Amino acid sequence: MRVALLHYSCPPVVGGVESVLAIHARLLAHHGHAVKILTGRGGSLGAGIEVKILRLLGSRHPRVLAVAGELDRGVVSAHFRALREEIADGLRAHLDAADVAMVHNVLTMHKNLPFTAALHMLISEGKKMVAWTHDLAWANPQYADRFSSGYPWSLLRAPLSVEYVAISEAVRAQMATLIGLSAESISVIPHGIDPADFNAWTAATQSLIRSIDLLGQDCVLISPVRITRRKNLEMAIRVVAALKARGWRLRLLITGPPGPHNPENAQYLEDLRDLGRALHVEADVVFVRDLVSRCSSRVVGDLYTLSDAVFLTSTLEGYGLPVQEAALFRLPVFCTDIPAFREVGGARVHYFRPGDAPEHVAARIAQILEDDRAYVFRRHVRQSLTWDRIYDRHIAPLLCRVAGEVPAMG
Question: Which end of the chain is more exposed for a tag (fewer CB within 10 A), N or C?
Fold first, then answer.
């Protein structure tokens, strides 16, 4: 679709709404929409995003400030009306060419009331808009003494023929009370996060994440080991099958290649693949070397940041390096009770015997993780509050609804 985004300013102007506006623009462009930002101040946001600077949309333009001063004195002058008409004329051609306009805060804030009034005119002409609401001026006691009950302040609480979006349930409640809308008529679309921005993942890691949908899983277990028989990885695969039987969506990440010094290790890898197929977990058990040409320590470190627990099933080890690595990433460890792991982990990790039933081990992992508030919250955020998830679940259906199109299936 052709989507216009409107606000007083955009980056590099620094502000909370400005940052969300830029994220929305990039997200929409990434999903193939033609994106145009209409704003009073700002700069380029990169390829695929057109930024059109219309100075009168800004909150600090001299004419806007002059009119704001008049309004503070209770004067609605010809200057206000002229500015309203000019802004509407400047926007009209751009909005005529847009399928949907996403208006951030301008319909509920007073930073440029001629801009707000111009949007009301354009909505009455049939322009399709979304009132994306971060803040409401009428809800802020700081501004209460500046408002009168008359025009144009009244525009900020006048219900409109637009799609209303609140960024939280708290804002939705304010909108319902102050604008007189039913709560059901207001969509709640929260702010998201992009985990890659926080973690500076390599391109290889990001490609891996997408290819196996790591962010959509209930649980990600990591086994940072080479593939040799003493690692007892068949037990790990059976535990994955038992967790899957409990209804969990999960991935087990086995990061290492077959051990280089025993030619039988290549056959062991094939045996593990056969077991995965037999237990119907071939997609859930990921041999990372199949997907990443070079699984460097940096990539392994990235995978630690994505994982919920370190899972080690070895029958014999000389030392337990992954156990102490887990501590640096604040990950719980589930491992066999062998001397090397106990020497490093002591009473600080979770043990099971190499011969324990996979169902027993799976039940223990599930119970411990489900009782861990940090894990439960992390699972919720990655499944529901990343920007990609928010686009799929909320923004794409919203655009289709406003534009009157039926979303594609599949």
Answer: C
Nearest to 21 by CA among 295, 32, 386, 3: 3
Q: How many domains does the chain have?
A: 2
CA dist 356 and 358 (Å) reads 6
The answer to whether the CB of 204 falls within 8 A of the CB of 299 is: yes
297 lies in which domain range?
198-384
Look at residue 408 and tell me if it is in a domain: no
Contact 345, 333 (CB under 8 A): yes
Looking at the fold, whether 217 and 187 belong to one and the same domain comes out as no
At residue 202, φ and ψ (nearest 5 deg) are -70, 165
R_g (Cα) of the chain, nearest Å: 28
Q: What is the pLDDT of residues 66-83, one digit of tens each?
A: 999 999 888 999 999 999
pLDDT, tens only, 316-375? 999 999 999 999 999 999 999 999 999 999 999 999 999 999 999 999 999 999 999 999
User: Strand pairing of 285-287 and 186-188?
Assistant: unpaired
What is residue 309's predicted lDDT score, i.e. its pLDDT?
Answer: 98
Average confidence score pLDDT of the chain = 94
- 398 and 333 together in one domain: no
Phi and psi torsions of 14, nearest 5°: -90, 130
Q: What is the CATH number of the domain that holds 370?
A: 3.40.50.2000
Task: Indicate the pLDDT class of residue 408, thresholds 50, 70 and 90.
Answer: very low
Would you say residue 410 lies in a domain? no
Model confidence band, residue 140 (pLDDT cutoffs 50, 70, 90): confident
Judge if 65 and 149 occupy the same domain: yes
